[in-house]
Amino acid sequence: MDISVVIPLYNEEESLPELTDWIRRVMNQHNFSYEIVLVDDGSTDTSWSVIEKLKTQHEQISAVKFRRNYGKSAALNVGFNIAEGDVVITMDADLQDSPDEIPELYDRVMNKGADLVSGWKQKRYDPLTKTIPTKLFNAATRSMSGIHNLHDFNCGLKAYKKDVVKSIEVYGEMHRYIPVLAKWAGFTNIQEQIVQHYPRKYGTTKFGAGRFVKGFLDLMSIFFVGKFGKRPMHFFGAIGSISFVIGFFITLFLIFEKLMSIANGTPYRNVTDQPLFYLSLVAILIGTQLFLTGFIAELVSRNSADRNKYHIAKVI
Ligand code: UDP
Ligand code: MG
User: Fold this and answer.
1) Residue of the nearest CA to atom 8 in ligand 1?
2) Which Gene3D superfamilies match (predicted)?
């Protein structure tokens, strides 16, 4: 199969018929073999019944429905797991992205060596309250990630070589930083394509004002993960262990010194008069504390990883 189009959607009943029709037109024009993977992120409108109906008319459609709203990242993650095309294209469901970009996106991945092609909505049809914070985000992400050639990390329209989507795990609010995840996974040919962007045709944006706070927290976690490896908290565990070992050896030394004095019959200082004794005590206590901090953080992060699992209600 040439192309999988993965579409996360939350309450987009009006756009779906138009969107899938448009995609079909483009695919047929270029003779692509394809599938459309619709991931219904717990819609509360009639999106799912619209999808069921569309599927009866359009055999390239497959769909997954979440039991509740888990967020765009979880929806993309499921789509990535299912997708079978050589090139995987993601697109928003609201008709703001244009399926007409698909042939060029495909060509860049198949023939121009791109691992990932990210759309750039150079001319953007969104309110200023959204475009200004987005500019700041992009600047911060560019400098932290070292991916200097992207203007628009969060564009919903992207294309991937199949390997890329099978190697990355999109969680939390990470859909805003997929190029960064791809870079960490070792995919370095990241390209940008200027894409057409339209105003939202139906309904309103599905993200509230909290999007920027959440996005910022994820940016921080990206920064920490990048610095300290996959498990940021191992950092504390490691420092704690070193401190503990230092304290332990000082104690051993003090005991050894005392035993030697007893054996040789030479006078020795009471251990509490030794500055080294206090140093070892502090080193052992701090070491234990830090080690436990790391351990607890590890438990918490595993638990929250479990919580982030999504429940799938239906598949067609
Ligand atoms: N979306 C989703 N789950 C959510 C929020 C949004 O699957 O919790 C989908 C939404 O239906 C759309 C895409 O993600 O297909 C982008 O959302 P939206 O257009 O609301 O974002 P904006 O264009 O305002 O950034
Ligand atoms: Mg939109």
Assistant:
1) 71
2) Spore Coat Polysaccharide Biosynthesis Protein SpsA, Chain A
Q: What is the pTM of this model?
A: 0.78
Q: Which two three-digit tokens encode residue 53?
A: 């109906």
- Nearest 5°: the CA angle 71, 304, 180 is 60
Ligand 1 mutation target, pool 12, 69, 94, most atoms within 8 A of CB? 94
Q: Hey, how many other C-beta atoms are within 10 angstroms of the C-beta on 130?
A: 14
Q: Which residue, 181, 153, 156, is CA-closest to 166?
A: 181
Whether residue 225 sits in one domain with residue 290: no
Q: What value of ipTM does the predicted structure carry?
A: 0.98
Q: Rounded to whole angstroms, how far apart are CA atoms 124 and 189?
A: 25
Which residue, judged by its Cα, is nearest atom 10 of ligand 1? Answer: 9
Q: What is the Cα Rg of the chain in Å?
A: 27
Q: Who wins on pLDDT, 229 or 145?
A: 145
Q: How confident is the model at residue 310 (pLDDT cuts 50, 70, 90)?
A: confident
Q: Quote the domain boundaries for residue 184.
A: 3-229+308-315
